[in-house]
Amino acid sequence: APGRRFRLTVRPLSPSLTFVRLTDQTAVRAAEQMRVDFVANASHELRTPLATITGYAETLAEDGELPPELRRRFGQAIHDEARRMLRIVSDLMSLSRIEADRFVAPQEEVDPAELARLAADHVRPLEEQRGCTVHMTLAEPLPAITGDFAQLLQLLDNLLSNALRYGCPGPGCEVALTLRAEGDQLLIEVADQGEGMAARHLPRLTERFYRVDESRSRDAGGTGLGLAIVKHIVERHRGTLEIASAPGRGSRFSVRLPLAAVTKA
Ligand code: ADP
């Protein structure tokens, strides 16, 4: 197939015998490339706010005559950029913690209704800020799942925050959070009435630092890591993530997780 990479090893063993090995290096190369890209992207993401901080801090240190109003503005800018770096570093740490736990099956018995209510509480300040409401539907019965409560809370928090940030074009909008049992799975769905996204973005959304609209993500305080974290949490819980979206028609993120009865069987 085009684009595949192979390594050919040829070693003469004796005058009449030659060892030949052909190994497919495509996956190894792809993983290496991902690592290289990740380090480059992470460095770039941290360097940008750091450059701004350095610039403002230098001016503050060197210009003793700076009017108080400018001093205040520069101080605020330094504070904002430092907080931005803190968010990036915290998200990177979350991501590496989840990755490290990849092969450790989560053990806690999690009540989906409790999880949903807590997640809705978490995003209340954002809800108020955006003038939008999270409308929660918990379809009975909602059997327990086996999971990592803190990680699942983070998953819901990330999906709801995104819906409120990018999926609420104006006050009065609604974000629908639905939980229901579907066969031997728990379905968690977050749907918004926002602008939606073009199909070409969807397969790339869970890549680290991928954003549809860079400046909007930045203004909203995004790190570009939220959906990468969601994907890793879903994988650790042996679940699936499905993203449906179209321009002008909102977005829907559906997570399916095995019910506790299944994981214990
Ligand atoms: P960010 O920190 O930028 O929010 P995410 O990984 O959470 O990073 O999301 C990646 C990008 O996907 C966002 O920057 C945004 O462009 C887009 N996105 C995520 N959720 C939605 C949504 N509900 N509606 C529209 N766009 C979204």
TrEMBL record:
Keywords: Kinase, Membrane, Phosphoprotein, Transferase, Two-component regulatory system
EC number: 2.7.13.3
Signal peptide region: none
Record domain Histidine kinase: where: 41-261
Known catalytic reactions: ATP + protein L-histidine = ADP + protein N-phospho-L-histidine
Alphabetized GO MF terms: phosphorelay sensor kinase activity
Protein name per Swiss-Prot or TrEMBL: histidine kinase
Organism this protein belongs to: Sphingomonas ginkgonis
Coverage span on the entire protein: 75 to 339 of 339
